[in-house]
Specification:
This protein is α/β, with parallel strands linked by helices. The protein is built from 11 helices and 7 strands. The protein has a single domain, classed as Thiamin diphosphate (ThDP)-binding fold, Pyr/PP domains (Rossmann fold, 3-Layer(aba) Sandwich), CATH 3.40.50.970.
């Protein structure tokens, strides 16, 4: 009998530490598939910073670095400059990339650093207890906003793709989701294109992925997927915000 499906070589055969319904496992599986299909495993370096992303090296079977929380773009910049022939894959959540590491990602994009960032946006701090993140939606309840995020007190949720799109140094910016099989396929296509942009030396690329966090949202896994479609996507619209083709 012919095999029509198999586990990616770059994906380790281990049990997950992620909560039931978490989107990290889906995204990491997609990354493993892309790395295998592109044949770049031996020269890929991943980044597993503090936060839920810290488990990345447990699941993806290629070289890994563990930066401090929010410092992935800075560390990735250093490694890419030292090892320009390697594929640099940053992987970070909204707490790290849009709060603690905002300066790092803005300046890495502005300098057109030839790295790829996978930005997992679940609108909340996950590992540290469900606190409000810069991407938390208005009226969304979290551990630090039990009555909901308040506009006058907390400001607006931060749209990182739209922000980085204003910088001349950014080359490829796209927002996807993992709320349906169709969206997962689009996420895989976007990650592959982002890596291609890096391989072509075109500059900074980032794939933002809207991902569920059922435990901290207080929802079931099924409800969390619906919440992405009904609540997150209207505020964080999917699609390309910048691409090399659009700059020509």
């Amino acid at each position: 009998m012919a095999k029509v499906f198999r586990k990616p070589v770059s994906f380790k055969d281990v049990s997950t530490n992620y909560c039931p319904g978490c989107g990290h496992g889906i995204i990491q599986r997609v990354v493993a598939e892309v790395v295998d299909e592109m044949g770049i495993r031996e020269r890929t370096i991943g980044f597993a910073p503090v936060g839920c992303a810290i488990y990345l090296d447990l699941y993806l079977d290629f070289d890994m670095v563990q930066p401090a929380h929010g410092r992935t773009p800075a560390v990735a910049t250093g490694l890419k400059r030292v090892l320009p022939d390697h594929i640099i894959l940053g992987y970070e959540g909204d707490g790290g990339l849009t709060a603690i590491g905002t300066a790092e990602v803005i300046h890495a994009a502005n300098r057109s650093e030839n790295i790829t960032i996978i930005f997992v946006n679940n609108a909340v701090y996950g590992m540290t207890g469900g606190q409000m993140a810069p991407t938390t939606l208005l009226s969304q309840k979290t551990a630090t906003t039990p009555l909901g995020r308040d506009l006058k007190r907390d400001g607006y949720p931060l749209r990182l793709c739209e922000l980085l799109a204003t910088l001349d140094g950014s080359a490829y910016l796209v927002r996807t989701a993992v709320s349906s099989p169709a969206n997962v396929r689009k996420t895989k296509k976007a990650i592959r294109r982002a890596i291609e942009v890096q391989m072509e030396g075109l500059g900074f690329s980032m794939v933002e992925v809207l991902s569920p966090c059922p435990i901290n949202w207080g929802l079931t896994p099924v409800e969390a997927m619906k919440w992405i479609d009904e609540k997150m996507i209207p505020y964080f619209p999917l699609g390309e915000f910048k691409s090399p083709n659009s700059q020509e």
